[in-house]
Amino acid sequence: MGVETPILDKIKKVNPEARVIQNFLEWLEQDTGYVIAKYYQHPSSRHPCPTCGPYSGSPLPVNSSCIRCRDVGQIEVEGASYIGLAGISKRQLVYKFFDIDEQAEDRERVAILEEMRAAKNA
Q1: 56 shares its domain with 29
Q2: Are residues 9 and 43 both part of a single domain?
Q3: Among 116, 98, 118, 115, which residue's Cα sits nearest to residue 9?
Q4: Residue 115 to residues 30, 91, 99, 101, 122: CA-CA distances in angstroms?
Q5: 84: Cβ–Cβ under 8 A, 6 or more apart, which residues?
Q6: Strand pairing of 37-41 and 81-85?
Q7: Residue 82 and residue 45 share a domain
Q8: Tell me: the pLDDT tens digits for 10-39?
Q9: How many structural domains comprise the chain?
Q10: 67-84, pLDDT tens digit by residue?
């Protein structure tokens, strides 16, 4: 019978391109020290840190450290914006580029394993 695996089939199809992108992202980080960043724009002064989450204390000055995780470079002023770590892994970024659903991939892998177990026990 066989389990249908459209996501795993797609991953196999885009694998050569995905490897090039993954290699580039690794080179970018390891050889140049650059990281993937994101532009954040806050409507209020109560969003201190994408690393450790919401904070209800008083606003922090530009380029200060988060008082909880000590992540540097967070901006806490009314309507402020800043550039910070994107909070996405290289794998997640590649999957997002190719529109691959990680949870669907996991479900397909589990379905394959269950089918294999069922066949072994039959």
Answers
A1: no
A2: no
A3: 98
A4: 40, 27, 26, 21, 10
A5: 37, 38, 40, 50, 51, 71, 73, 74
A6: antiparallel
A7: yes
A8: 999 999 999 999 999 999 989 998 888 877
A9: 2
A10: 555 554 444 444 556 677
